[in-house]
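Issue 218. Parser rejects a valid record. Input:
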Amino acid sequence: MGKCVESAEVIAYEDLGTEAVRRLVVKELPVIVAIDSMGNDMYTEGRKQYATK
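Output the parser choked on:
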């Protein structure tokens, strides 16, 4: 992930150091999105599909 981060900016709780809230700008970060905008979870749906009855 570190190679994909172009910039990082503390936006809240700077006094917390490494626990501060940061805005990250990333480029070409490979990810898998498992939850869609309707709240459907790909992992839960997949388990249901292959569950033995």
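Fixed in the parser; the record now loads. The beta strands are 5-12, 21-26.
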